[in-house]
Design a protein that fits this description.
Structural class of chain A: alpha/beta
CATH topology of the largest domain in chain B: Alpha-Beta Plaits
Largest sheet of chain B: 2 strands, antiparallel
Number of domains of chain A: 2
Oligomer: heterodimer
Distance between the termini of chain B: 42 Å
Helix content of chain A: 40-55%
Low-confidence stretches of chain B: none
Number of helices of chain A: 13
Number of domains of chain B: 2
Structural class of chain B: mainly beta
Mean pLDDT of chain B: 91
Low-confidence stretches of chain A: none
Helix content of chain B: under 10%
Distance between the termini of chain A: 55 Å
Mean pLDDT of chain A: 97
CATH topology of the largest domain in chain A: Rossmann fold
CATH architecture of the largest domain in chain A: 3-Layer(aba) Sandwich
Number of strands of chain B: 4
Radius of gyration of chain A: 21 Å
């Protein structure tokens, strides 16, 4: 009988990486990701996980080492956050365009300056266009489940792409929760062996990351774009299969009390669980409000967003990142464009909040929803508002 | 479906190997870097002292020894940088614009 165990989410990630029997881990510790890397280093040092642990000198090197490992067909894992993710930025593009299935847990953290080790989604949004599959999670169990799924999705021969599993720094990474870890027999059933089709192999030499002159670069990018977009079907298939074996189900857009809602709030990550409390309270007062939780950020789930949001009158989007000088947060901007082609669509109102670890309470979410409704009726002078900022 | 079958300029995005992986070793030798050239070296071998400096300095390694012991750039690869012309101690090499005789 499988039992839930009280465990810090970061430690639980390490336990999943052990259970999938990763071959190579190359990572550089950075708050709030440190406990993941520490636990993995410990597992390897104690012989509990037979993997090469490469203690690199920076995140740029961490991702570079992961490229090499994935290129020989090794099951590869890393983790980062905030400034660390930014330092590996250029190598992230190489991983996806060389089609290397690396799994990375990102404990989302704000970007400097001022220096902040606390959570928001600035780091995730900065790497939005790097070509990785990106999944957002809301609690420890979702993190564990999706790290396992990430290996299956990324290594699928139809996908062969790197996958980021986003978990909010501290709010999730350092939380101790009752967690159900996958049993070895379940992992064996769920996760096939990693068989990279064209690995670096002296008996069958290949060149990876070759020179791409203008005559071929556009074709390479089109192939990459089609491949990432098509990965959605495999993500769906993986989550269905996961639900069959593990009884937890996941969807690109999770709908909460949204079916008949006139007003919808859309959020991502751990804040969704707090937002549910606000939605429940407002429903109790007879208000037709609901919540959409965007789980699959890349590839972007256009159809699912349209289906979930089109019947509402107002859609309020909360971003935990700012696109400075732009139309609002990146999530709001993308959701608005996804809905634009529809004849009947909700008014989309953007808020930015929860920056640099600032909490939003259930009362706060209620205030965001109320203010969003007000803006939908009366308009606002600003493109978006920053929730809770002291004026 | 790899790059052996067709040249790069004919391949569609569907025909690329995953991640643009090249499966044929040494295929880069077919890449005509000479296409980048706007000037090419022209030679007056009567002044050549066969010192080989042009060959040593060529950053592309595309200068070969001829049957008569002179040194001449392979225009399939020569990018026309002009370093050989600058380094030649007896001004054997002059750079001329492509399209001129």
């Amino acid at each position: 009988m499988v039992k839930k165990v009280g465990m810090e989410t970061s430690v639980a990630i390490g336990e999943v990486v052990k259970r999938v029997n990763a071959d190579v881990i190359a990572a550089y510790p950075i708050t709030p990701q440190t406990h993941i890397v520490e636990h993995l280093a410990e597992l390897v040092a104690e012989g509990e996980l037979d993997a090469a642990f490469i203690p690199v000198e920076s995140e740029h090197s961490a991702m570079s080492a992961c490229l090499g490992a994935a290129a020989v067909g090794a099951r590869t894992f890393t983790a980062s956050a905030g400034q660390g993710l930014e330092l590996m930025h250029e190598v992230l593009y190489v991983a996806s365009s060389m089609r290397l299935p690396i799994v990375m847990a990102v404990t989302n953290r704000a970007l400097s300056a001022p220096l902040s080790v606390w959570g928001d989604h600035s780091d995730a949004m900065a790497v939005r266009d790097t070509g990785w599959i990106q999944i957002f999670t809301e609690n420890g169990q979702e993190v564990v489940d999706n790290v396992l799924c990430a290996f299956r999705i990324g290594e699928d021969p139809r996908v062969l792409l790197p996958v980021m599993v986003h978990l909010d720094g501290f709010h999730l990474s350092h939380m101790i929760e009752p967690i159900l870890l996958p049993e070895p027999s379940q992992v064996a059933k769920f996760l096939p062996e990693n068989k990279y089709p064209l690995p670096l192999d002296p008996s069958r030499p290949v060149t990876m990351g070759d020179f791409g002159p203008p005559v071929i670069y556009s074709e390479a990018k089109k192939a990459q774009e089609v491949n990432l977009r098509a990965a959605k079907e495999v993500v769906l298939e993986c989550w269905n299969e996961f639900a069959r074996i593990f009884k937890h189900s996941y969807h690109p857009v999770e709908c909460y009390r949204s079916e008949d809602a006139k007003v919808l709030l859309l959020a991502m990550g751990s804040f969704c669980e707090t937002a549910m409390v606000a939605v429940d309270k407002m429903r109790g007062e007879g208000k037709a409000v609901g919540l959409l939780r965007l789980r699959l950020w890349r590839p972007f789930p256009f159809e699912e967003i349209r289906k979930a949001a089109q019947a509402a009158e107002v859609l309020i989007v909360l971003d935990r990142a700012i696109s400075f000088g732009g139309p609002g947060g990146p999530v709001c901007s993308e959701v608005r464009s996804a809905l634009y082609p529809l004849d009947k669509r909700p008014k989309v109102i953007g808020f930015v909040g929860g920056l640099g670890g600032r909490d939003i309470t259930p009362d706060g979410f209620e205030a965001i929803i109320s203010r969003g409704i007000e803006i939908a009726k009366k308009g606002s002078k600003e493109e978006f508002e920053i929730f809770g900022v002291r004026e | 479906m790899s790059r052996q079958a067709k040249s790069e300029s004919e391949l569609t995005w569907k025909e690329l190997e995953i991640g643009g992986i090249v499966t044929e070793p040494g295929s880069a030798s077919r890449y005509r870097t000479g296409d980048w050239r706007s000037q090419r070296p022209s030679y007056d071998f009567s002044r050549c002292i066969k010192c080989r400096l042009c060959q040593i300095y060529c950053p592309d390694g595309c200068i070969n020894e001829t049957d008569k012991g002179y040194f001449e750039a392979d225009l399939y690869y020569c990018k026309g940088c002009g370093i050989c012309a600058t380094e030649c101690p007896t001004t054997v090499i002059t750079m001329v614009d492509e399209g001129e005789e």
